[in-house]
Amino acid sequence: xxxxxxxxxxxxxxxxxxxxxxxxxxxxxxxxxxxxxxxxxxxxxxxxxxxxxxxxxxxxxxxxxxxxxxxxxxxxxxxxxxxxxxxxxxxxxxxxxxxxxxxxxxxxxxxxxxxxxxxxxxxxxxxxxxxxxxxxxxxxxxxxxxxxxxxxxxxxxxxxxxxxxxxxxxxxxxxxxxxxxxxxxxxxxxxxxxxxxxxxxxxxxxx
Length: 207
Description:
Layout: H1 34-48, H2 51-67, H3 72-83, H4 121-140, H5 146-155, H6 174-182, H7 193-200
């Protein structure tokens, strides 16, 4: 029996960055396998986390996302977009968005004060689950549509049904970046928000 959310067409080698403009987003059949996405991001992850922390993160995403009926590949890609996979990321947005998925919630899980290698597995799992809960709500608000759910997760709502780069106070390149990560593009090969604004011609200037 095939694993849940598995893709038959991957891993595909040498995926390169592509501007995803308007409503462009890779079909699920174009997504890399979970392990392939993880391996592509591992050099970045290793710069922040210990081997044991990365193993715990990979497992927490796979188990918790599957239990929530969300493709784990989406959550892994969001982790890279939100925090570059840094288990020890500080809370953003003035200290209110915490954890690897930068979630605004009561009692947020965080290892911002822990040294590399000292983040407990249960805290890593809690960070992931808090983000998944937010993504569940985001997806439910748009009938399960992944790119629109990503826009809601980042911006609170879909600002344009014809241009997912319109982000209000969010990040205009968010959906484009996650789409590329799902294709197996390494985080290090994806231009930052400002780079995508100029390279892709996004209309919204939010970064």
